[in-house]
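User: Before I run my own analysis I want an independent prediction to cross-check against. Here's the chain; please return only the structure tokens and, at the end, one sentence I can use as a sanity check.
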Amino acid sequence: MRGDLSQIFGAITGFILIIVVILIFSYITSYNVQNFDKILEKNYEFYEKRSLELVDFLNNSTNISNPLIIIKNIGKVSLDPSCFSLYIEGNKINFTYQINEVYHDNLLNPSENAALYFSYPNTGWKKVVLISCNGKRFETLIYFYS
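Assistant: Structure tokens:
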């Protein structure tokens, strides 16, 4: 009788212990999965936004007395040229811009053109890098002539 009672008590204790372990494991995994889902969602939004930014350079040569680069937004999102960074041969260049706008919102909307005006004294082929607000790089070679 005493052996039967201890076996029943041990079985109930073991069953409760197994249920508690399963609940703790379930809580840990569901909490980690929720955090992992949030991390994946943030990364997806970040990369999705970056992949929608596309800029095309419409000219491949410019005069050094009045250099300009004409760009066209061929992406799906509006871009803000005021926070672009322009690099020529690795040197950061200050520039001004003028957008040929359909909508007057100071954004480079999809299928709109913009002219970037700057000064650069050297002639020849130069590597031009334009970096958007989100860090997307657009590169081309442009010939500077006198």
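Sanity check: The longest helix spans residues 2-51.
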